[in-house]
Amino acid sequence: MIYYILGSCFGSFLCVIAERVPTDRPFVVARSQCTNCKRTLNFWEMIPIISSLLLKFRCRTCHKKIPITYFITEILYGFIFAFSINQPSTKDCVITLCWLTAALLLSLTDVFYLIIEPKIFYPTHLVLTSLCLFFKMPIYWESVILYFLICSVIILFLKEAMGMGDLLLLLFWVPWLTLIELTQLLIIASSSALIVYLVISLITTKQIKTLQLPFVPFLSLGLFIVHFL
Questions:
Q1: Among the listed residues 112, 119, 21, the one whose alpha carbon sits nearest the alpha carbon of residue 69
Q2: What is the pLDDT of residues 166-184, one digit of tens each?
Q3: Which residue from 121, 81, 122, 120 is spatially nearest to 100, judged by alpha carbons?
Q4: From what superkingdom does this record's organism come (predicted)?
Q5: Which of 73, 97, 150, 183 has the highest CB neighbour number within 10 Å of its CB?
Q6: Residue 189 CB: number of other CB atoms within 10 A?
Q7: Using an 8 Å Cβ cutoff, are 32 and 46 in contact?
Q8: How many CB atoms lie within 10 A of CB 57?
Q9: Other C-beta atoms within 10 Å of 140: how many?
Q10: How far apart are CA 13 and CA 29, in angstroms?
Q11: Positions in the chain short of pLDDT 70
């Protein structure tokens, strides 16, 4: 429970990073504000999970809805942090926490701005790659070969299927995934994205041609299921 609470606190901070870094706003020293009225939040308005429930997901001053993304992230990262800390070895703990944290951060930037933010992507994944090499994680070359074959097909025939940012993200993940894990990850990510896409298109008035979904959260979901569970 202590690990979960700590993770929830970190999860709130990850949301701030993902929201502010792409727009070059300070996130370390700047106080948290309402995204609508810009009022500085009191400490009791920033208690993970609890504050959102007590405030009924609305700002105390302007009464605009608080993005539910923060609430969901606090719940998710509490679980991720506790899950990572309870891994059987220090190596597994460090790599799990680093990999899932990077995946969550990039999922958030994709949700907020439909981008993979380079200022978050490159530092986190260079650290992840360095850790995998330091701990002598096995490299699966057959997965790398399959990845480049998939990239070739997408670039030649299915340019709209995946963004180049998604392919670049997979480039850093693929060497550490078995061939079966890579295949299952792509199946889970694609099928879950398709299901969400169809559901949203049925319940929204937005034209289906203009409907855009962030794909990194689905890749991250696939990663967690096939590699860490």
A1: 112
A2: 989 999 999 999 999 999 9
A3: 81
A4: Bacteria
A5: 73
A6: 24
A7: yes
A8: 15
A9: 19
A10: 12
A11: 29-31, 34-36, 38, 43-45, 158-162, 205-210
DSSP calls for 109-170: HHHHHSS--HHHHHHHHHHHHHHHHHTTPPP-HHHHHHHHHHHHHHHHH-TTTS-HHHHHHH
Alpha-carbon span 200 to 146, nearest angstrom:
32
Burial (CB < 10 A; 0-12, 13-18, 19+), residue 2, is: exposed
Report how far apart, in Å, the C-alpha atoms of 168 and of each of 61, 95, 117, 147 are: 42, 20, 12, 11
**Single-letter code of the amino acid located at 200:** I
List the one residue out of 178, 194, 192 whose CA is nearest residue 226: 178
- Cβ neighbours of residue 56 under 8 Å, at least 6 residues apart? none
Q: Which amino acid is at 60?
A: R
How many other C-beta atoms lie within 10 A of the C-beta of residue 43?
8
The CA distance from 217 to 75, in Å, is: 15
> 177 is written with which tokens?
């995934």
Beta strand segments in the chain, E: none
Can you tell me the distance from the alpha carbon of 213 to that of 19, in angstroms, rounded to the nearest whole number? 17
The candidate with the shortest Cα–Cα distance to 177, out of 106, 89, 95, 97, is: 95
Model-level pTM? Answer: 0.90
Rounded CA-CA distance 112/115 in Å is: 8
Distance CA(15)–CA(196), nearest Å, equals 22
The position carrying tokens 């949700």 is 111
